[in-house]
Amino acid sequence: MSRKKQKLELTWIGKEERPKLEPRILIEDPELSYHANERRSDDDIFDNILIHGDNLLALKAIEQEYAGTIKCIYIDPPYNTGSAFEHYDDGVEHSVWLSLMRDRLEILQRLLSKDGFICCHIDDSEGHYLKVLMDEVFGRENYLTTLYVQVRYADKTLKQDMNFHKQVEMVHVYRKEYGGYPNLNTKKSSFDKFNFYIHEKGSGRELTLGGKKVVVFDKDEYEIVKGEGSEDGRKEIWATGSILDGNSSGRFFRDNLNGRYEEDGYGVIYKVFGIGDDKFDFRWFTGPKKVGATKGKYYQGVPMSQLNDRDAVKTSPIENYYDLAGAFGNCRLEGDADFRSGKKPEALLEIILKHFSNQGEIVLDSFGGSGTTAAVAQKMGRKWITIEIGEQAETHIAPRLLNVVDGKDQRGVTKSVDWKGGGGFRYYRLAPSLLEKDRYGNWVISKEYNAAMLAEALCKNMGFAYDPSQDENEYWRHGHSTETDFIFVTTASMTHAALRKLSDDVGPDRSLLVCCKAFNADADAFDNLTIKKIPHAVLTKCEWGRDDYSLNVANLPMAKSDEEIENEEMKRDLPLFGEGKE
């Protein structure tokens, strides 16, 4: 009997089908890369990365180098709305969307650092399915929260014929593993809320309550003045709810003052001695002020711990709801990037990056859009990687980031983070597939690959770090997997003599993988060499020649028309040739 452990997970058509991704290399376009003319500060970051290409292939391209290094990932994938799939086969679109998201999330999970976070922006079209999918990929125990974001006002209707108005979207937040802690809200110690001052105008009357000395002042014997906060002021606190059980003042009010208005009248104030943790030896309490009221207040001085450490920083939990309808409504031209569909405001990314990353850490956005994540990351001193398949990588993102680097972008969060410009970025394109078919249908190395590109691509495919030696005596060292294991790539046909020289140059204490077009020698004759032919050595490693894994509905199977379905049914009903004949 099978004892296979079951787990809670989504199932969908084609879930077990997984693409065999080609680990492409990246080619820099120096005309679109950009750097500031001078260093503005010691914190300037110049090696940010903008990649133009399919984001699944691009993630695979950076996986080897950046695995375990990304602190914060923010993605804003296509929402998979029903209208987008109006003409496509019912059910297929959700399966395709989930598969393509799963494939991306799995690489993103490997890219995250141990203390990293992923924030996935979505609406309710697929948001709840995405939540379960992310539970599966990241582990339900690593789910932290869902941030709810108001993206439009109630009176801003998208379509007049809609039954429900979509005002709120969501951001699912996960950590990589236990030990990842977000940056909580912080506030420096201040006296701003201690701005009430109570002046005695009469002598009052003394009594004892709860074992404490109490002086009661009638409403014409005292005055409460609200002014500037200071260390001599007091903070007003309602004595209700959990306060009544949560501290000594609340409990005193509950046990001794609750209902006292029947004896002392309305609007009185009580001066209670020997209570509190401030510099005063008494604390003020008020009862209800008018008939029918029951609640009271107390006035607390600045705690001694705060007075003794005036520079202390307090933390508070991160909110999970943000009203950013105004920011969404006004973000269309942020960064001078007119991007009308799905653009996110810089204010949202400021919140995300503030809580889930720190200066100098790497931020990744694999659905680049108009470049908002990269722009905010640059302004907030984070290193960033952003990926975009569309032409807006060149028409929108690169120009926007150029203005950020030059300090010309004055919109968005520029003023709130005091951005002055600086740093830079490199613009990359995905290289074409390493292999292509010749006119006979055979896989051969692409004509677009030169020697350096071929060496780098083979390093990626064979699991080596590309690191060509600058020492002419180590001409054979194109990359390494360990300190003593190396790779050499050549399109030459290697003879026995050439391999013998190579073996001698490598030496007995090192090993070398030789990838060559052909060789004429006994492959086992050299203890320190492993010899493989290209492209044969990589033929089965991945899918070659596929450039598009995008979440594009145009790639989905079209739904069949009623006429096509009817014709197929008629064909099934026709007798086969010879059937029914005598």
How would you describe what is shown here?
It contains 14 helices and 30 strands. Strands 1, 2, 3, 4, 5, 6, 7, 18, 19, 20 and 21 form an 11-stranded mixed beta sheet that branches. Helix 1 (55-66) packs parallel to helix 2 (92-111) and helix 9 (346-356) crosses helix 10 (372-379). The longest helix has 20 residues, at 92-111.
Q: Which outline best applies?
A: elongated
Helix content: 10-25%
Which regions are unreliable across 5 or more consecutive residues at pLDDT < 50?
84-91, 556-560, 574-582
- Count of DSSP strands: 30
Rg, Å, rounded? 34 Å
SS-based class: alpha/beta
Q: Report on the biggest sheet.
A: 11 strands, mixed
Overall pLDDT, averaged? 89
Strand composition percent: 15-25%
Distance between the termini: 54 Å
Brief characterization of the structure:
The chain has 582 residues and is an alpha/beta fold.
